[in-house]
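Think of the structure tokens as a kind of shorthand, similar to the way a musician reads notation: each symbol stands for something richer, in this case the local conformation of the backbone. In the example below we present two proteins back to back. Begin with the first one, reading the sequence and then the tokens, and try to describe in your own words what changes along the chain.
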Amino acid sequence: MPALVAAGSGVTQDLKIAVIDPNRIVEESPQYEEARQTLSAEVAEREADLVDQQQGLDRLGEKLERDGALMSEEEVKRLQNDIRARKRRLRYAKAELQEDFALRQSELRTKLVKQVEEVVRQIAKEQDIDLIVSEGVVYFSERIDISADVVERLKEEFQNRK
């Protein structure tokens, strides 16, 4: 690696610079896949419940349409009120699921980012790297890309955890 001049020092030093591709690291890490599966499983059960609620609502609507003419005015009003209340609860449940999903997704992403940052720091120390650049890089040589090292370490940590 060429010698670089440290800013303002007038001293020439050899600096070791590396780059990481955060998208590659996330996509290839087993921690990301596990988080994605965990989130999907958490959401699937609640989505199934919402589908059941919607189907029940649809059946009530069909009943009102089919039998409304044969029902008393009081029965029709009661059924209409029940349908309105269920629609309101369903809208609330959908909004709550979206909020919970976004919050949980953010929590899992934050946890993964912290793991990646820790691994990057460990590798930087082990390889005596002075600077690691991440996003906003226009070009970098494969020679200085340590993304594969980071992914490999994340895989090791994932395996050791189990």
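Once you have a description of the first chain, move to the second and do the same.
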Amino acid sequence: MKELLYLKDDQLKDLIEKLFVSYRETFSDSKKILDRYSIGLAHHKVIHLLSMYEGISISELLKRLKVTKQSLNRVLKDLIKLEIIIFKKDDQDTRVKHVFLNEKGKKIFNEIFNLQKKRIYNALLNSSSEEVINFDNVISKIING
């Protein structure tokens, strides 16, 4: 364990590659579903966030995605055309719009999630509880810088 305290560049490069590959594999599982609905990863990210934060505001969605208004607008327009999302104005401030998945959107999310869940569930199932906790801690530290 002591060698982990002084990771060499080659070890860090290997870790970064594993992060790339795990991301690629996790999201390639859902590629067929995304293709079936003519949507891409940007759409999937929005659908995923809408499933987690039902009724999220546009400004909060922008903050979480860290994208431009223009990029988000393009994705939202596509999701509207495909009849996947709905908007509701805020009761207190009508300038604020909240975004929701409709039934079709929830169905698409569940199809994708169930595929991704298999890969992640199997990895967690084949890991000790200590490994799972440590992985979660490390990944959180990577996310939070």
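Compare your description with these statements about the second chain. Helices lie at 9-28, 31-36, 41-52, 58-65, 69-81, 103-125, 129-144.
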